[in-house]
Amino acid sequence: MITLSQVSKSHGERRALDDVTLAIESGCFLAIVGQSGAGKTTLLKAINRLADIDAGQIMVDGEDVSAQPLAALRRRIGYVFQGIGLFPHMSVAENIWLVPRLQGMARAGRAARVAELLALVSLPADFAERYPAQLSGGQAQRVGFARALAAGPSIMLMDEPFGALDPVTRAELGTAYRALHDRLGLTSLLVTHDMSEALLLADRVVVMDEGQVLADMPPRALIRHRGDPRIDAMLDAARGAAAALEALARDA
Ligand SMILES: Nc1ncnc2c1ncn2[C@@H]1O[C@H](COP(=O)(O)OP(=O)(O)OP(=O)(O)O)[C@@H](O)[C@H]1O
Q1: pTM to 2 decimals?
Q2: ipTM of the complex, rounded to two decimals
Q3: How far is the CA of 37 from the centre of ligand 1 (A)?
Q4: Is 34 in the pocket of ligand 1 (CB under 6 A)?
Q5: pLDDT tens digit sequence for 150-196
Q6: Does the C-beta of 40 come closer than 6 Å to ligand 1?
Q7: I want to staple 118 with a disulfide (CB 3.0 to 4.6 A). Which of 37, 52, 84, 123 is the partner?
Q8: How many CA atoms lie within 13 A of 203 on its CB side?
């Protein structure tokens, strides 16, 4: 459904994407992990053309994204990011209805569709009339997911969507989104710093460093991976925490 062929992008001297080739099949939940500056955000933004690329080709549904009208591309691709950017002066319903409104959807169906989208992200229907300042961080993030899903996209790009949340809400939302991904048959790309989150939620994990793909494999293969010190360092952090907790439970 999404393919990147030899994609490169530089900011001055700095290569944010360095000859990246990836194929992401329909229905896949792909996590992209890597340290700060690895190129993860640039990769997502290249797919929905928030960033232009210098070389290579990106195809979505068999069409080169650079040849697709932006509006049509963005309708097919939902985008969720950390801190979500809800408009503070708009109600939850108005925030969720933003994209359908821009697409000229009739207001008549708004209430029912907003209620449906709120239900999808497990928020009560009466949240529609609230304002962003009246939401917790987790609730605001759920509204962000509802907004991204409002135009009925088949692809979701998510950039650290759980990054600003407490660990319990983060785990809850991650699991809830995974269920939603499966139920709606979405293709999802999740950028995260958290290797455990990537391993536990995704079907496939791409590890990036300095604009390059270091590894691309299912979680069960990646967790056993040895030999590349850059990947080892990221895996060791996840393994170390799990082992320490297990030891603590054993000694208790
Ligand atoms: N608009 C820009 N102008 C200049 N340099 C940029 C720009 N956007 C990204 N970069 C640089 O490109 C590289 C990759 O950035 P990118 O945001 O894709 O990394 P990332 O892996 O998402 O990092 P983080 O985890 O910190 O969000 C970094 O070195 C960054 O400084």
Answers
A1: 0.90
A2: 0.91
A3: 5
A4: yes
A5: 988 999 999 998 887 788 888 888 998 999 899 999 999 999 988 99
A6: yes
A7: 123
A8: 15
